[in-house]
Design a protein that fits this description.
Shape of chain B: globular
Order of helices and strands of chain A: HHHHHHHHHHHH
Largest interface: A-B, 21 and 21 residues
Oligomer: heterodimer
Strand content of chain B: under 5%
Number of strands of chain A: 0
Shape of chain A: globular
Distance between the termini of chain A: 50 Å
Number of helices of chain A: 12
Order of helices and strands of chain B: HHHHHHHH
Strand content of chain A: under 5%
Chain lengths: 303, 201
Amino acid sequence: MATSAQTHKLAPQSVVFRVMKTKLRLYWKLIKSLQTGLLLATGMAGFVSFACPVTNFSTLAALAGSLFLAISGSTVLNMVYDRDIDARMGRTTGRPIPSGQISPRTGLILGLGLSITGVAWGLLMQPLYGLVVFAGLFFDVVVYTMWLKRRTPWSIIWGGISGGMPVLAGRVLAVGEIDAVGLLLALGVLCWIPTHIMTFNMRYYDDYKRAGVPTFPSEYGYGVTRLIIALASVLAAGSFGYAAFLIGLDWGYLRLLSVLSVGMFFLAGVSLIKPSEKVNFGLFKYASLYMLNTMLLILLQAI
Amino acid sequence: MAKLSMLDRILLLLTGLLAAYQVVAGIDGKPTMVIVAYTVAFGVLLIAGLLILIIGMEILDSSFVAIVATLIPLSLSLGIVAEHFPEWQTTYLLLVVVGFVLVLATRLLLPGNLATLSLMVVHGISGLLIFGLPFYLSLTGRTPLGFLLVGVGGGLIGLGGLLLSFLKTGHPILSRSMILAVLPGLLVLMTAAFVFGFYLA
């Protein structure tokens, strides 16, 4: 049994450990781990879509590392720039920067550090790959967040383009050029973005309104937004399906992809005909699952 | 409505994984019509599992779900008929289409007793085929004995359908909460019986 003196000796170590754990948890929140993970999965799927079966694990690991840094960096920079909006929205007010747990300066240094390291690593690996990674970061932080997000709901297109860059980057790293499959996969992500973002815009309508961020539901109404979501779902599934066919995915995987796509059409259709908050948020969650599964199928093909 | 427990979530996830396996790997090498029919059946099962997992049991109250759920027994029975009795394939396909249109039309245009009746007839015929044909085929030696499991799955799907139908008509055999509590377990058992039954055949 530990004596009182031993307990006192251990105490400072456990305090340091606890402080480090809290800090790490705070910084982890800054990078939106789920979103970053999903984008990372698209990048890796883009890479293995050409290099099937995967034999070059060191390149795959370098791709994962550089993309993780660049995506995390752009997310942190967005959080720094949008801290005033986040402070006005109930959903985001507790984030580390608006809540004052991390200063904007620290966030900026961290964001720039992660972004520059990620892009530089990418450029060293292959210039075109690094350029695509940089394009994703530039479209996301400068064009989407800093320039258009507060002006027009159409900014979502640029958000979508930047969202499609990781999968294109992965493909470029494998192929050495921008090809049709890479563009189709990126188009799939671009068309998937409205399903993901607009369902969220509807769920947190008041939050976005209060923060003064123009969204499709606030500018064009719920009906038009739902129609766009349904159309975008069809386009996303079509792009992914055609890309998967060109990649040469097994028929079994293609069948499963078709089934999952039909599930998304079904939910988008129900949301259009008989809208409800439950179905709307269900579609949001299903869309994320759909994207993850699509990328997983491409990854599984490589094993 | 009560939230899904962790066990419910695991069972639904298992249902989805089993159905996904069947779509990907369990039906390769069969005739096109059989592949299409089984893909629809297990695809709907997969989507059903995912939607219950994501949205919750409330999704079962939707009239769309009642219509789409009809596809499971219809397409599964069509797959069995097309695989083992190809001479009946076209006739039964016609019956399946008519049955589905009947369910769709009565649900959307004439809700009430007629809709319930058509649902019961369509589910009844297809359910009996899924239950009876595997027993007949395996006991007469036309398929390995393991194919019996598909019949067991047919029995379970019939039981699930019956419980939900009586719940919908307002005369539940068990209480609503009891039915919803056993549903995830019933779904995973049924899917497992189908998947292993087809595998062993």
